[in-house]
Amino acid sequence: MKKLTLSALAAVAVAGTSFAGPCAVLSKDFKQPCTTPCFRDQEFQLDLFYSYNDAQGGDRSGSRSGTTDPQRTPVGGSRASSLGILNNPALIPNGNTVVTEGEASAKVAGYFRDGSGGGVGLNYFFARYFGIGVEGNWWEGTQESARGSASLADTVDLSITSPGTAVACAAAINAAGGNAVVVDANTLRFGNSARFSRTEKKIANQVTGSLILRYPFEGPICWAPYVFGGGGGVFDSQTTGFGHLGLGVEFRVTPYMGFFTDWRWEFMGNNSDNNNDRVREIAKAAGLSNINFNDNKRQDVNMTRVGVRFVF
For all residues of the chain together, what is the average pLDDT? Predict the structure, then answer.
């Protein structure tokens, strides 16, 4: 009976240690090994990461069209006029009239460009599943100079009083670098197009704050999927605010170090105000005027991060 009683008490004691915590005392000379969870209830984290930023949309385009009244000289903005062709009395003698029907278009790329970068982040988890974070990301992703294309096509009707005027006018346009075709004795068509890529990439300085929700899994492989959202801004020649939403996953190698990757979509504000200057530069270089550009200024960016995380 004594042996049975002692055995029962020993069993109860051993069972009790399974609920006594990670460092329960089994006997005077032996303690259960302490086990540190991969993800703690309160953590401070330091992130070092590489980022790739993919710009979406933001291009602006515009066009104009119109027909002049019969006159000696066509309206300003005509490519042929800017070349001094239709205004040249030697090509269009007195007594001729000119009617120009023209179409012009131009396109300017958005402010943000695709680019690689990187940065540093600080996170604090005040509970096992909830935390906050702030980060700085620097990437080569903005442009300050003109990038786009422009084209112009005019149809010119000539009231001819001297033979060969249409042919002579077309020859002069082609000699000046244009592209003119004689349609008939009184009509020719000419056009001009240009592409511009004077782009100077600059560093975008981005600061972001986030609320983070994670769900840790402990085991042979410690990992935690997470979602996050918040906002921030890009600070360079023009300040642009944005909101963002994202998701990611973290793998812990030890309770104090891990690796993570995540993706987010950044909903940028109107960030193409300075496009107006680049629009004017392109229009002037192509001899265009009175271009009415659309108001599509919004340009979003999605960002992918890969990095290492140190936990304190």
Answer: 77
